[in-house]
Amino acid sequence: MQRMRFTVSVLCPLNPLPAMCAMGLSTVIRLRDKRNDPLEIRGCSETALLSLLEMYKSFSPKPASQGLPPLDPEACRRWVRKLLKYAENFLAWREGRVIGHASIMPDQEKKDGEFLIFVDRGHRNRGVGRALTDVALRRARELGLTSIWLTVEIYNFRAIHLYKNCKFQTCSRDDCERTMVYTL
Ligand SMILES: CC(C)(COP(=O)(O)OP(=O)(O)OC[C@H]1O[C@@H](n2cnc3c(N)ncnc32)[C@H](O)[C@@H]1OP(=O)(O)O)[C@@H](O)C(=O)NCCC(=O)NCCS
Predict the structure, then answer these.
(1) Which of 84, 99, 180, 90 shows the shortest CA–CA distance to 137?
(2) In what order do the strands lie in the sheet with 112-119?
(3) Ligand 1 binding pocket includes 162 (Cβ within 6 Å)
């Protein structure tokens, strides 16, 4: 099996691993994907709106899963704005372009968070989704959340495979989708 090379280096502190555990907006995690191509994962604020919209503009298929990303450009813009405003977001960058986006929408009362992830079609199956998910889960732990949940369509085999790899467990399912939970 081909493994992701996790040669992590972080811009700010001297020791990369503690730095990864303190994923702030200025943290940059540099790694290589399964094809050995370089990749950066960064936290993200509302200033990344245009770069993120650029990825979703050319995203294919649209919608890809559960109506997301929205096909209508204005609806897509509203959706991305909402995520940037209320959620914790992580972007995968390559050659100055956003190629992947993961997001956790925290619920501080319940101490949980909803997870979603999208990787640009041309960059799938190379470990980008795995890297984004790992970083997002670390951040969720830092935020003091106790679990992360998601829903996924039952025929979205690639996503389900990724979530199982990351130790999400199925807690319910119906004819259309399953709900999976990661306990932190
Ligand atoms: C789901 C998605 C985020 C995964 O991103 P990715 O970068 O391709 O993920 P990774 O490469 O890290 O992992 C994909 C895994 O699925 C496996 N896979 C690929 N196609 C598969 C299939 N048809 N059935 C089962 N597993 C499959 C890959 O081999 C890989 O597993 P491995 O690391 O054990 O080899 C991406 O495909 C995507 O954006 N899809 C469209 C949007 C979407 O469905 N989002 C999820 C909403 S719930």
Answers:
(1) 90
(2) 5-10, 28-32, 38-44, 88-94, 97-107, 112-119, 147-153, 177-183, 169-173
(3) yes
List the chain residues with pLDDT less than 50: 1, 5-21
Which residue has the CA at smallest separation from atom 27 of ligand 1? 158
Tokens 């929205």 sit at which residue? Answer: 70
Residue 179 beta carbon below 6 angstroms from any ligand 1 atom = no
The predicted structure's pLDDT at residue 46: 81
Residue 129's identity, in one-letter code, is G
Three-state DSSP class for residue 62 = coil
Q: Does the beta carbon of 158 lie inside 6 Å of ligand 1? A: yes
| 5-146 belongs to CATH 3.40.630.30 | yes
What's the burial of 58, exposed, middle or buried (CB within 10 Å: 0-12/13-18/19+)? exposed
122-157 pLDDT, tens per residue?
Answer: 999 999 999 999 999 999 999 999 999 999 999 999
